[in-house]
TrEMBL record:
It comes from Polymorphospora rubra. It comes from the Bacteria. This is Tetratricopeptide repeat protein. Pfam families: TPR_19 (PF14559).
Length: 134
């Protein structure tokens, strides 16, 4: 959730928070494209907010706007290279973009960084390893 913002008089500006909540609802309802449309101005206003950026990346991924998802995920990894989830989704994005060799490194990192076993991470890694190794 984005942090509360204040206008010049010190009052809370709830517009961003309300738009974020609306975006979550649209994303959860299966409309990632509209969720992304709502999230774009929030990320522009709060570029350091990784929670909002992550939801935007997921929305782009879900809407098959894969180049945009890649951009958001790479921005997340610049600020936190240890974000296993960002590595996982970036790997999945690169896989869908037809770049399995690039995806492999991110998927391996995600599996290695995740403290506990994650079936989704492991399945994605095996799938891309099989594709790369033939």
């Amino acid at each position: 959730m984005p942090p509360a913002r204040y206008d010049r008089t010190g009052r809370r500006n709830m517009d961003l928070l309300q738009e974020y909540r609306r975006a979550e609802l649209f994303f959860e309802a299966g409309d990632p494209a509209y969720a992304a449309k709502l999230l774009e101005p929030i990320v522009a206003a709060e570029p350091g907010n990784t929670g909002v950026r992550q939801l935007l990346a997921r929305a782009y991924f879900g809407a098959a706007q894969l180049n945009r998802a890649e951009d958001q995920l790479r921005a997340m990894l610049v600020s936190d290279p240890t974000d296993h989830y960002a590595h996982h989704v970036l790997g999945r994005t690169l896989e869908r973009l037809g770049r399995p060799a690039e995806a492999l490194g991110h998927l391996r990192l995600a599996v290695a960084m995740r403290a506990e076993e994650n079936a989704e991470y492991s399945a994605a890694l095996r799938r891309v390893e099989n594709r790369v190794n033939g």
